Each structure stands twice: as C-alpha cells, then as structure tokens.
Amino acid sequence: MNIIFVGAECAPWSKTGGLGDVMQALPKSLAARGHRVMCIAPRYKNYDDAWETGVRHRMRVFDSEQEVGYFHAYQDGVDYVFVDHACYHAFATEIYGGSRQDVQFRCALLTKAALEAPWVVPCGGAPYGEDNLVFVANDWHTSLLPFYLQAHYRDHGKFHFARSVLVLHNVAHQGRGPMDDLQFLEVPEHYKELFRLDDPVGGEHMNIMKAGIITAHRMVAVSHGYAWECQTQEGGWGLHAVFQEHAWKLRGVVNGIDYNEWSPTVDPHLQSDGYCNYDVDTLDKKRQCKMALQKELGLPVNADIPMLGFIGRLDYQKGVDLIRDNYDWLMSEGVQLQRAYIWHAVAWAMEQRNHDKCRGWVGFSVKMAHRITAGCDLLLMPSRFEPCGLNQLYAMAYGTVPVVHAVGGLRDTVKPFNPFEQSGTGWTFEFADSGRFRNALGDALYTYREHKDSFRALQQRGMQQDLSWEHAAELYEDVLMQAKFQW
C-alpha cells in the first residue's frame, strides 16, 4: 500500500508528547514491512536534513487563496514531507498556540496540503499517485482529512479508491467551536450536521472530531482499554454516543517503542557525565546511572536511596496533584523525587522545602528525559486518563519500575506485581485517589527495601518484554487492509 501519515507534530523535528514519537516510529515499521510510506507534518522552522522540493501549490483555505511549499527528507525508508507556510513558523515554539481560528486555519491548511501531496510532491523521482492509497490522520488536528477526502474529492470522482483511518491519541481535545466557524472550513451545506454536537460539556457546537469519526473508514485507539473508554460517558468527552454508533470500525492497538531511540544498551545520552549503557544482564550498572543523575541534579549521591521520577506536563490529566498531596509523606519516607516538566511554581516550592531530597526540572529536554528514565528506581504515572502512554514503556525497557493508575494504556501495559506468584511488571492502583496512590507507592518502596530479589525480578521482567513497534505495525497493517478492502 501507499500509506500517508498526517499529524501536527513529528519527532525529532517537532514534538510535545507521544504523538510526535508515534509519527516518527510507526511509519518506519510499516515501511520495513514493504509499504511505501509518507509522513506529513508542518515545517515549523528550518530543518537541516529536509530539502526544498521546488513544489509550490495553491489551495483555498479559510475563504482565501494560500500557497504552500513542500520540503522532503528520506530516512529509514520513509518519505518525511514538511508543509511550508508562514503560519507554522509563527508558532514554532508553541505549535498548538494562538486563537481558536488560528489553530483551525493551520489544521485545515495541513490537511488540504496533505491531500494534495500524493499528486504534486515527487518522492524518489515520482509522486505517489492515488493507487492503493490510505491516509492515516492523527487526532482532531487532522480530523478534517477524512471529511475533506469524502466531501471535496470522492464526491467529485477523485480519490475514488483512497481510504482514511483516524487514530485517536487523546479525544479530550476535539476541535470544538461555534457552528458559525463552518463558514471558514469549506463545509457544503448538506454536510453541516456531521459537525453539530449538543452535549452537557459544551452545549450545541461545531465539533471537528465528530465529523472525522463519522467519515473515516476505520479508527484506531492507541490501546485496547482506550477503545473501550472512548465509548463511556467518562472517557468519550461528549462523543461517547458517536463512538458507540461507529464502534464497528474502532479497534485498539497498543503503541510500541523505537529501540533505536529508547534502549539502555545503546542510548547515547548515557555515554557521558558518569552515566553508562547497560542491559538486563548488566543491570547492576544502572546504579551508576542513578548516582550520575544524583550528581547532575545536586542531590546527595547514594545509590541505596530510592529515587522516584515523574516526566510529564502540568495537566489535570497527568495527576500531578496526587504527587503534590503525597509530597510530605514521600519526604518522610527518605526518598529522592525528581520531577521533569512540572509547573515551575509547584516544582520550586517542593524543591525549596526539601532541597536535599527533591528536584524539579522545568522545560523540555530529551537528554534529561532519557537520564531520568535510566537513573530512577520507580517512575510515577498517576494519570487520570492515559490513552496509551509511552513513558511507562520506556521505563520498563530501562529497568525502572512503573507505578501507574490503572486506566487506558497503563492498564494494558503494566501488569500488577503479585509477590506470591512472582509475576507482574509494576504497581497499579484503581481510582485517581491520593490514598490509593500512596498505598501503591508504599508497597513499591517496601519491596525495594525489604525484598530486593523480588524488585530485581520486576526490573528484569520489564526489560525482557518485546515492546517494539513490529507487532503493533502488523496490527495497524490489518486495520489499513480492512479500510482498503472491506468498505
């Protein structure tokens, strides 16, 4: 098949979370399975490894004529294509920033440029064309793609055999706005009801994701649990009834990780400053990474002190308040707590109260994320909802044991520790409650201190799993084939 991924971000060029990682890794795995794969994202700034194609293309967006350019990079068997327009450069440091209509404009422009790319962008000397073509849209930012494919192309005899798949990474964000916004999105009158949603969350409004759900030929949620949660009132965020109606085309596929990027055996971020590479057979070297992290952060260097880490943004979703509510208890337990990307005021206040036990790293640093993952003993993920989650997968690959709220992909990927059967890969807790979180943490710390063999076995089981994209790519391939041939 000719497969075209479209997303608002794509690592390593642009990334705010797991979507960027998926846009980088999944296309490579599908290309390795013999498909021709293109990955399209905005060009937010100059990328040294992406070259101007010379193609300039004009389209109508927001009731105005717009011209875009296309830049191209070929890596690991994938054509990475970047849409060039001034609106993306203006938000290079805040790719989801701006007003509602600013974001709508950028999303509509990206979607339309992506739909034109198979015809106008020469990759390897020739455009993809429309034979055996499947578009893969990601989240609401590209949910206009399935709709435009149908309303602007297939209804007019173009892309007749092309299909679309919508991947759901986080349905809490849906592209909501007043119905009047449809005048800017080139929506034919007889299609406007596809966008209308009346729910207790936002009243009557225009919902871009709803139209994408209805017009996509297939959907993928990024875990089995999340596919189910989307169909509940709590997890559907107002769209649960729409998901229930279209459940026949919804499937859950758990994300994988790219071992070229995330492996303690070859990680380049562990090759300096006292860190070191290690694997399941040399797990004792992980202590060296822990002491290097303590030194780098200015904490007392002691490999026997349990070190806990959190990597995530300040967001109600991430359950940061559960860590805050347990802060005093954690400090009394004699642990070291490292938090990356927490809101500055919260991180600063915690650090000042216990300067020898707590550090907050504010900002985005790939190197520090890798080093925290390698250096900590436990990774905390008390997320209220987590469609899939990647940090718990990275943690297990590095022998760092996760403590997670049992929702979505966290429930699917972290198996609770059973001390009697010596099974499981981490600790889980039900309900986003600070007391239940504390109980799980208490069990984890007790095992770390009093049952070191059991804790070592937990680390080893996590590292011995096959968490690669290969299996997930096979399942995605099946969904793409269904979209192509079972419609």
Describe the largest sheet: 9 strands, mixed
The rounded distance between the terminal residues' Cα atoms is 16 Å
Please indicate the percent range of residues in DSSP E strands (runs of 2 or more): 15-25%
Domain tally:
2
| Rounded radius of gyration (Å) | 23 Å
Q: From the 3D structure, determine the CATH topology of the largest domain.
A: Rossmann fold
Please bin the fraction of helical residues: 25-40%
CATH top level of the largest domain?
Alpha Beta
CATH superfamily of the largest domain: Glycogen Phosphorylase B
Q: Which sequence of strands runs across the widest sheet?
A: 3-4-5-2-1-6-7-11-12
Number of helices: 18
By CATH, the architecture of the largest domain is named 3-Layer(aba) Sandwich
Mean pLDDT: 92
Shape: globular
How many E strands? 18
The computed structural class is: alpha/beta
Q: Which residue ranges are poorly predicted, with pLDDT under 50 across at least 5 consecutive positions?
A: 341-346
Topology:
Blueprint lengths: L1 E5 L11 H15 L3 E7 L8 E11 L2 E12 L2 E7 L1 H4 L10 H21 L12 E6 L5 H10 L9 E6 L7 E2 L18 E4 L3 E5 H8 L2 E4 L2 H6 L3 H4 L3 H6 L4 E3 L33 H12 L9 E5 L8 H6 L1 H6 L3 E5 L3 H10 L4 E4 L4 H10 L2 E4 L9 H7 L3 E5 L2 H6 L13 E3 L4 H17 L1 H13 L4 H17 L2
Parallel strand pairs: 1-2, 1-6, 2-5, 6-7, 7-11, 11-12, 13-14, 13-16, 14-15, 16-17, 17-18
Antiparallel strand pairs: 3-4, 4-5, 8-10, 9-10
EC number: 2.4.1.-
GO molecular function: alpha-1,4-glucan glucosyltransferase (ADP-glucose donor) activity; alpha-1,4-glucan glucosyltransferase (UDP-glucose donor) activity
Protein name: Starch synthase, chloroplastic/amyloplastic
